[in-house]
Design brief:
The protein is mainly alpha-helical. The chain contains four helices and two strands, in the order H-H-H-E-E-H.
Length: about 100
């Protein structure tokens, strides 16, 4: 276990996302997401290291645009080395950054 001071969990109040502070934190979250199959492999024969690297890229891209790691893992696809944001995350990010957009169905 590391020497970091653990933050106690408190009942009630608002839940806060786990935010990585170092690259090692990002990799630890990515490893957990890959092992739990929350972040899927691109190809069946893809090595775990490659999948963890893709997941790490998704998390770091998400942090750049204001998404928590969990949101990034679920809303960013890494295709051919490019991070693509899709789904409800797109208008959510725009609204969070002050854009006034209308959603048309």
């Amino acid at each position: 276990m590391s020497n970091k001071q653990l933050t106690p969990l408190r009942a009630g109040g608002r839940a806060k996302p786990i935010m990585p502070e170092t690259f090692e934190d990002v990799q630890r979250i990515a490893t957990m997401a890959v092992k739990s199959e929350l972040f899927k492999k691109g190809k069946k024969d893809e090595p775990d290291d490659t999948t963890i690297a893709r997941c790490s890229l998704a998390i770091m891209t998400g942090l750049d645009v204001g998404l928590s790691p969990a949101q990034a893992i679920q809303s960013i696809a890494v295709i051919n080395g490019r991070c693509l944001i899709y789904g409800d995350a797109v208008p959510g990010i725009l609204w969070a950054h002050g854009f006034d957009i209308d959603q048309v169905e």
